[in-house]
């Protein structure tokens, strides 16, 4: 009975169709189109566009204008090097000085080709390093792709170009050879979800920002997986096995720490508190964890979300 009640509440929170205040994302994407993708001083990835899409996905789009008011636009115009894309793409990945080249290329591609074709072509090339920039190349790409799925607009195409460009300059691993094992539908999906589950157990045991992304990373891939082929899934699954190796090895022992964590209430005040925090991570984790629970029924994901509802704990995490 309790699980049925939780499932009904989650279904009410996660807005699959006709998301309230959907159009607000176009304003956000236009506002930050020319903003620097990295924060000053810390050089962490800026979350000014990812946080709002997660809020909209939880029916909290009306809170987005107040949320973005705390995030500055820092004008940024990278100078292209002139490297030839796509023919020299292998030489251009992992190089921040090529960011202007990637932006120009993806803006052009997405103005002339269907977004699903661009995603399929380039995620296959980039999925060898799903963990680039602490998964944020993948995560920004996935949030943009989902926004574009809900509404076609030039602003959303531009945001997708910025997600893919960020992933390109963060790439560390070399392009893979042909996978030795072709994943079946059941193989890759269950394997990537298990990585997210192991990430949730790790995050509950030790609630840090890097461990939080062990959940949001694989769940971001699952946001775009329906656009991709089995070869890409095989490459991505192998990459997640590497990024999550420690979490997978310690999964059984970490699971025990979840027993003492209460399930989140998911009442409206709890959800609105996510929008009241200027950091995007609580909203991103909660939205990803709710999707994971909806897909698996595993309360481990809800218990991971509960960790970011504790304001004092969250402040300790982010310092």
What does this structure look like?
The protein has about 325 residues and is mostly helical. It is about 65% helix and about 0% strand. The radius of gyration is 19 Å and the shape is globular.
Using brief descriptors, characterize the structure shown.
single chain; 0% strand; mainly alpha; 319 residues; 18 helices
Order of helices and strands: HHHHHHHHHHHHHHHHHH
In terms of structural class, how would the helical and strand content be classed?
mainly alpha
Kindly provide the radius of gyration, computed on alpha-carbon positions and rounded to a whole number of angstroms: 19 Å
By DSSP, the count of extended strands is 0
What's the overall geometry? Answer: globular
Helix content: 55-70%
Q: What is the end-to-end distance?
A: 39 Å
Strand content: under 5%
Mean pLDDT: 91
The number of helical elements comes to 18
**Low-pLDDT ranges:** none
Largest sheet: none
Topology:
Elements: H1 2-13, H2 24-31, H3 50-57, H4 64-68, H5 89-92, H6 99-112, H7 115-126, H8 136-150, H9 154-170, H10 185-205, H11 209-224, H12 230-243, H13 245-249, H14 251-255, H15 268-276, H16 281-296, H17 299-309, H18 311-318
Task: Please outline what is shown here.
The protein has 319 residues and is mainly alpha-helical. It has 18 helices and no strands.
């Amino acid at each position: 009975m309790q699980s049925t009640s939780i499932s009904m509440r989650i279904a009410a929170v996660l807005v699959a169709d006709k998301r309230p205040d959907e159009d607000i994302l176009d304003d956000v994407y236009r506002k930050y189109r020319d903003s620097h993708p990295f924060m000053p001083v810390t050089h962490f990835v800026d979350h000014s566009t990812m946080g709002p899409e997660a809020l909209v996905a939880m029916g909290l789009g009306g809170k987005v204008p107040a949320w973005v008011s705390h995030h500055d636009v820092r004008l940024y115009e990278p100078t292209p090097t002139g490297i030839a894309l796509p023919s020299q793409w292998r030489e251009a990945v992992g190089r921040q000085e090529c960011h202007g080249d990637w932006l120009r290329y993806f803006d052009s591609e997405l103005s002339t080709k269907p977004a699903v074709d661009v995603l399929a072509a380039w995620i296959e090339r980039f999925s060898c390093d799903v963990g680039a920039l602490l998964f944020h190349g993948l995560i920004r790409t996935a949030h943009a792709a989902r926004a574009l799925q809900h509404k076609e607009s030039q602003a959303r195409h531009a945001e997708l170009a910025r997600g893919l460009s960020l992933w390109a300059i963060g790439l560390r691993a070399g392009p893979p050879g042909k996978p030795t094992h072709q994943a079946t539908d059941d193989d890759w999906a269950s394997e990537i979800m298990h990585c997210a589950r192991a990430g949730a157990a790790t995050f509950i045991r030790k609630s840090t920002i890097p461990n939080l992304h062990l959940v949001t990373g694989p769940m971001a891939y699952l946001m775009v997986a329906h656009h991709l082929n089995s070869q890409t899934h095989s490459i991505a699954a192998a990459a997640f096995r590497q990024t999550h190796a420690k979490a997978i090895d310690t999964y059984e022992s970490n699971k025990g720490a979840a027993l003492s964590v209460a399930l989140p209430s998911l009442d409206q005040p709890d959800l609105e508190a996510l929008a009241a925090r200027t950091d995007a991570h609580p909203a991103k984790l909660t939205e990803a964890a709710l999707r994971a629970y909806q897909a698996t029924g595993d309360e481990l994901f809800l218990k991971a979300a509960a960790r970011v509802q504790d304001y004092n704990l969250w402040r300790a995490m982010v310092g």
